[in-house]
Amino acid sequence: MENFSSYILGGLGLAAFVIIGILILLLVNKNEKINLLARSFEKLRRSFNDLDEQAKLIVKTDLELNKAQEELDKRLGGLDALQRISRLISTTLDEAEIFSRLRQALTLHLAFEKSLILIYDDRRNLNCHVAIGIPDRNIPVFMAALENHAGVGAAMKRGNAFSSFSAPKEQRESIAHACDAEHFVVSPILSKEGIIGMIFVGNQSNAAAITQGDEEIISILTSQIGQALENARLFEQVYRSRQDLEAKIQDRTKQLESALAEVRNISKTKSDFVSAVSHELRTPLTSIKGYASILMQGKLGNIPEPVKERLGKINTHSDNLVQLINELLDISRIESGKAEMNLVPCGLSALIDSIHDLLTPQMKDKNIQFIKQVDANIPTLMLDPSQANRIFINLIGNAIKFTPQGGAISVSAKLNNDTVTVDVADTGIGISKNDIGRLFDEFYRVDNVINQNVKGTGLGLPLAKKIVEAHGGRMWVASTVNKGTTFHFTLPVNQPLKANTQDDQT
Ligand code: ADP
After folding, report:
1. For the chain, how many structural domains are there in total?
2. Quick one: what percent of the chain has pLDDT higher than 70?
């Protein structure tokens, strides 16, 4: 029995041992599982944390993106407004109109509660040209605050904007207070000459704050305003100086017209006088010449030789006087348009040849060579032959007179478009610069040895010039002392003269 019970006890002990063993085994296994689960849980927790971080990042990025988008939209809006305003102000050159357009555009396109445009006048005083959202009585206070503010002044001098976005807090607050605008930009209006004014835009505290974009847009706007004002001022200057010039030209034209009328009047009086005197002289001269000739012919009895000789002198001097009077009469007739040019077709070359024939003896006397160069393409000209002869006789005659022995005279003619230019050149004594300006004046003769010995009237050149002008041409001269002189004149080709309707009344 004792063995049996010890046997049972032993059995129970073994069973308990086994059970404990199994329990221990089970426990160990569970702990491992718990550990595994704990590790998995930790992993999961970390993943959650990561996800949470990423979600936060996404939300943050989204917010930032929205903000950037807003800023971009605002800038785009600002640029659009800027483009509209600049188009508006750049299409006028009137300063007052620029400000009027700015007044409308600032209200319409830029949503600032307050705007102020200040411009310096000639005495460097600031004047208000545009004020929006600011009562008139407050404008002087605003202006004084901006003008006397050290920060604004320094920024303006540098040509920079001063704004609630970038200015130091203390400086910013004083403007915000004085101008009742917590958010603001003050920007200089610049032109080539420097600062010509400034613009202020601002909002009260409950409105959106000024950003860098706003500041940039206002800076661009002020440079556009500066440019537009500069253009308007330049235009105004040009316009004013043009008006001044026009007024001066009108004045001068009036003066010249009245001077010309006076000259015409004097010239007419002179022509009338010369014509009247010449007529009065011609009649008694003809009588003198007639009586002298009767006496010389001995019709009133025999005349002693010395008296005959004196009568001959009376005759020669009378002839000279008649020639002078005729030339004077011709000049005044041509001047007054009374002398009719009887235009007929004339060959220039033949005309020169005939004058050459006429003057050959005088040229031979002085052993002067004559050269003629007339272009073959010169057409027949419409000339009054007797008057044209006088031109050549006078010019070639003078050339012979003032060219020493063995010299040369050349007459050339060239065709240029619808004009023939004739040159009569000699290798004579020439004419000094002092004398050349008066050469075509009536009765002007250069004081030289030849003129002291040879008689002349000083009417030949003025008459030749008048005849050329009556044919529609012009005459001028070039000369070098001791080298020679060239007279140039033009004659039109196939240019009919305006009909001379006045009869020769002399
Ligand atoms: P005149 O021959 O009767 O003196 P003109 O009117 O023909 O009058 O000429 C005026 C003056 O111009 C002349 O006296 C002379 O001094 C000057 N003159 C004209 N032709 C020439 C010339 N070819 N060379 C130099 N002097 C000239």
Report:
1. 3
2. 97
